[in-house]
Write a structure and sequence with these properties.
The structure holds two protein chains of two kinds.
Chain A: H1 6-28, H2 31-48, H3 58-76, H4 87-91, H5 100-105, H6 109-118, H7 122-133, H8 138-145, H9 149-166, H10 168-175
Chain B: H1 3-13, H2 19-31, H3 33-51, H4 61-68, H5 84-108, H6 118-131, H7 136-164
Chain lengths: 179, 166
């Protein structure tokens, strides 16, 4: 796509807007803020599309811009959602929202899973999103989030173990017929 | 369960095990019911994460972004009407035309030449002689062409300045 081609850009935006919005939302945890960051991402891409060097996939380049833009937004708004020091505390997902009453009310693992992911740190939530929804490899995720491959691998493993432990009750319910 | 075993289950689910590891895990699944449960819990999580959907921005998001994009840049590619060589030829012709104008003027008012030097008079005579074979209507047409060309050149320069900048 050449710079300035608005028709082609509109098509491209429709194709990727949910991905970009989700990445931003994982960082900013707010619909309004995430939309603002996603909008800024697309404007940046529109202005700098000529600088895309095809060394990586277009989606990898786009998602890395989205992630950086969302982080910049959170810093500007002093939202304090991104701090590597907080990674550990984010991993300690609170149980307060997954009460036994909710378990019976919302016996929907998908919904609970979405809520739990939203409680993760921006980096962790995006690792899960990019790996499962963005269908990105560990190498690509490392490039997008500016981490090392081994770091992403370890985080992915630890995150899934944490999620498994937090959601064992729900998961057991799902597999009870199969055991 | 050991830390390494947990990691191995994820390797198995992500299809990253070696052939040997895969065989070992399969054997473990067949022999050990607790291993089967450990695998199934992780696999259920894996399946649910895969089925997870992306979040969607508001309905008018696309329009909002399209409206916020910078205005299109109208770049009018201009190429000169006349090439550099054409310019040179043009100015030679213009000089000749200018001479023809002077000749035309002198021919209509022959008395005006008397005040000039002999040298200039000779040149004048030479020009008159060399151009005398050109009929007056042709000379008039050439003058008109000269004026039109000058106007077009001026317009060309003006348009170039107007549209070269974005």
């Amino acid at each position: 796509m050449k710079k300035g081609n608005r028709v082609a850009f509109s098509k491209l935006m429709r194709q990727y807007q949910n991905y970009v919005f989700t990445i931003c939302f994982r960082v900013l945890k707010s619909q309004e803020e995430a939309e603002e960051a996603a909008q800024d991402t697309f404007i940046k891409v529109f202005k700098t599309i000529d600088s895309f060097k095809k060394e990586s996939k277009f989606s990898t380049w786009l998602y890395s811009i989205a992630f950086r833009t969302a982080i910049d937004h959170s810093r500007k708004k002093k939202m304090n959602v991104y701090s590597m020091d907080q990674e550990e505390s984010y991993l300690q997902i609170k149980d307060d929202k997954i009460t036994p009453s909710q378990y019976t009310e919302q016996h929907d693992l998908k919904k609970v899973l979405g809520e739990v992911i939203q409680k993760l740190s921006p980096v962790d939530a995006n690792i899960i999103t990019l790996y499962y929804q963005g269908e990105k490899s560990v190498k690509e995720i490392a490039e997008i989030l500016e981490l090392t491959e081994s770091n992403v691998k370890v985080k992915l493993y630890r995150l899934r173990e944490t999620l498994k432990n937090k959601l064992t009750r729900y998961l057991r319910e799902e597999i009870k017929d199969l055991l | 369960m050991k830390h390494s075993d947990e990691q191995m289950w994820w390797k198995y689910i992500d299809d990253e095990c070696t052939e040997e590891e895969r065989k070992m895990m399969k054997q473990l699944l067949e022999d050990d019911p607790s291993a089967k449960e450990a695998f199934m819990l992780r696999n259920a999580l894996h399946q649910n994460l895969t089925k997870g959907e992306l979040l969607e921005p508001s309905f008018n998001f696309t329009n909002k972004v399209m409206d916020a994009l910078p205005p299109p840049e109208y770049i009018v590619k201009t190429t000169p009407i006349i090439s550099p060589l054409g310019h040179k030829i043009f100015w030679v012709l213009i000089s000749l035309l200018l001479l023809s104008v002077i000749v035309l003027l002198w021919r209509t008012e022959p008395g005006t030449t008397s005040a000039y030097s002999v040298y200039l008079k000779e040149i004048n005579q030479f020009i008159i002689d060399s151009c005398s074979w050109i009929p007056v209507p042709v000379l008039q047409t050439l003058v008109m062409l000269f004026i039109t060309s000058i106007t077009l050149l001026g317009l060309d320069a003006l348009m170039k300045r107007r549209f070269q900048k974005v």
